[in-house]
Design a protein that fits this description.
441 residues, Urease, subunit C, domain 1, TIM Barrel, 2 domains, four-stranded parallel beta sheet, 13 helices, globular
Amino acid sequence: MEWSWQRIPGEYLVTGVRLIGGGKVSARPGFLHVKKGRLEAIGEGRPTLAGLPELAADGLFCAPGFVDTHVHFREPGQEEKETVATGSRAAAAGGFTAVVTMPNTDPAIDNAGMVRYVSDRGREAGLCRVLPAGAISVGRQGETMAELGAMVEAGAVAFTDDGSPVQNGRLMASALQYARLLGVPIMSHAEDLTIVAGGCMHGGYWSMRLGLSAMPRAGEDAAVFRDIELARATGGHLHVAHVSTRGAVEIIRRAKADGVRVTAEATPHHFSLDHGRCRDYSPLFKMNPPLRESEDVAAVADGLADGTLDCIATDHAPHTDTEKELQFDQAPFGVIGLETAFAAGVTYLVRGGKLDLGRLVQCLTERPAAVLGLPLGKLEEGGDADFVLLDPEREWVVTRETLRSRSRNSSFLGETLKGRVLATFLRGRLTWHADDPSVVR
């Protein structure tokens, strides 16, 4: 792909691209006409307009900008790991034009002022839409409900105590009821601490072999079941974060068949890697929920394929090298994932025969946007020109040097993945170019 201009003009054409939308890939090349940050026209074949600057992207695929329902940007309080600005840079490099930030910061995002603070930092960075999720409880302590209404007015798009489960069932039920009136989902970090507290990896063969404390599947399954029953009783919208077990997938599948208002997400590491990756005690494979067994990995992929799991979310969780160099049981949970999500999807889902390219893109665009009820994730005439150019055949090696995040704790370091986001556009403005990373300032 060669660029025909140094500065993106106010009006231009992107030509020769295979358009992706609605879970399908266009049969023949098409074009985008971008004008003043919006999509003036979209279609197959050649545009009839002449005289406009043109990006000839022959052979590439064009999709809506990706939407991530689950990222940790660490600001305020842990800026040494990530900031809203550096996280936005990583998002752009991964093809994401909208991300939902988790509230487990210091202090927590549990009031309107903090919601506005994160939103303002996102606008200042200008590389993706930063949409804060507010905390369910004050200080994420699981005791008193936070001011949900005021946070929605300030721009919060969901509520969660992510990083900590809401153990108080009465509080969770009240939050679901209130959030229903506000028209936003409650995101569940599904974990029963009476079952998994003190554990550091999945309970199975490898935890026994390595002598590490276990986090059994039952801890997730029990919490998912409880929260779904609360959603059933209240009519609230429950969104289950980072599903990792075959049992949770089946519980969600049955609840959807019963008409419960539940959506769910899967992370790239949970549909691609199993607990055997922990065999060398590398904290780069320590996350919560933990990597599970091969049948769980397959169940998560199948859940995405049949729609039980609505979308792919990265759970991008940056940590410093110093933290991730601690012993496995002492290192923090979490791995980054914004920059490798598309490639992991191509490598493990598309090439693995679980999804085709159109459905993979749908799990990164329309479906997460629908979970949040946001008008994003689509290429529509008159809409904002948020789009990405993709090469699903390009191979690349994930190295510390290729990553834009402030942290480097990726489970895919050293791995060759297939599928690359070549360029990202936010409201028609180029925010990432894989062959010229300096575009992202």
